[in-house]
Predict the 3D structure of the following.
Amino acid sequence: QVHLVESGGGLVQAGGSLRLSCAASGTSFSDYAVGWFRQAPGKEREFVAAVSWSGPSTYYADSVKGRFTISRDNAKKTVYLQMISLEPEDTAVYYCAANSRYAGPDLNEYNYWGQGTQVTVSS
């Protein structure tokens, strides 16, 4: 029902910034909460941030609070993740995902996933 495509990843130096985009297609995008997750090599996929479909309300993992900002533009059917003060530990494949229930950290609640975009932070 919703198709998601991430973009904006790349290679940056520690302390730098990137803005990721999650472009959606399908019906009723504004009805979905959208989350960002990331997965580093050898690690489990982890929650990063989420934004609700209404409000909007935002939620962040402790590891990114104060550095990452999630936002959405329903008119453009796009969700953004603005990342500043990037650290090598932020290196991962970043995925956006959508669910029709709530914005939260549980990846099992998300029904639709993008293909991911690579973020690499060099020291």
